[in-house]
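About this split. The held-out portion is used to measure sequence recovery: a designer receives only the structure tokens and must propose an amino acid at every position. Recovery is the fraction of positions where the proposal matches the reference. Here is one held-out target exactly as it appears in the evaluation file.
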């Protein structure tokens, strides 16, 4: 479950001194949890309205409810990250993803904002195909940038004191426009970047670097710093 993987579900309610985790038993009895787990059912949509928007509602309403509950139990610390996760699933849904190079090859892709220290997922945005980005702001930006801004805005809406946080991203999300937009929202950004990204200046594509203690450093405008090990 989440950040505490165990061999099987029953072990989360173990009473053994060397493996007991009191958190779960305080929230649910094992019997109550298993009742909900086995009876959870997503309503089948009306066949007469079997378009893409109706089909995703079978899962979206449930996922949106879960997303709304994450913030009730934890507030991320200063360092946060945005990345994607794949929830293993092989059922018949139109937005299932497949990547043979990933440990979880089949599943539902979910973009997440998480606390960097604990790994606690604070906010999610499920991937429903091309319609995922329809309601996101700033159509002039890359989809990856819009996703990141959306997740951070959700954090700000729930925790106004989250200004000044430090976000970490991988090369799929990192871009100069993202850094500039986050700076307007008073959020710092650190991440790897693809040099062929739009907006990356030529000075970073073929930088003239100087060596210092096994680390090459170059500074540039916009309060950005590039490092090459």
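Reference sequence for scoring:
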């Amino acid at each position: 479950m989440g950040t505490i993987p165990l061999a099987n579900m029953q072990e989360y309610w173990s009473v053994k001194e060397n493996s007991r985790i009191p958190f779960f038993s305080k929230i649910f009895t094992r019997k109550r949890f298993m009742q909900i787990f086995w009876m959870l059912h997503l309503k089948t949509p009306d066949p007469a309205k079997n378009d893409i928007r109706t089909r995703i509602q079978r899962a979206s309403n449930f996922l949106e409810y879960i997303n709304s509950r994450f913030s009730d139990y934890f507030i991320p610390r200063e360092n946060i990250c945005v990345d994607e996760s794949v929830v293993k699933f092989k059922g018949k849904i139109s937005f299932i993803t497949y990547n043979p190079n990933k440990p979880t090859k089949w599943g539902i892709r979910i973009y997440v904002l998480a606390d960097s220290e604990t790994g606690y997922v604070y906010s999610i945005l499920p991937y429903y195909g091309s319609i995922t980005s329809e309601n996101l702001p700033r159509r002039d930006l890359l989809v990856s940038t819009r996703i990141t801004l959306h997740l951070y805005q959700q954090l700000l809406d729930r925790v106004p004191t989250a200004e000044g946080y430090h976000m970490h991203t991988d090369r799929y999300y990192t871009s100069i426009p993202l850094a500039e937009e986050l700076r307007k929202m008073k959020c710092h950004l650190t991440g790897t970047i693809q040099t062929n990204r739009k907006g990356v200046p030529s000075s970073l594509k073929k930088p003239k670097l100087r060596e210092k203690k096994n680390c090459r450093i170059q500074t540039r405008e916009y309060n950005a710093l590039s490092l090459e090990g």
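Annotator remark: The radius of gyration is 21 Å.
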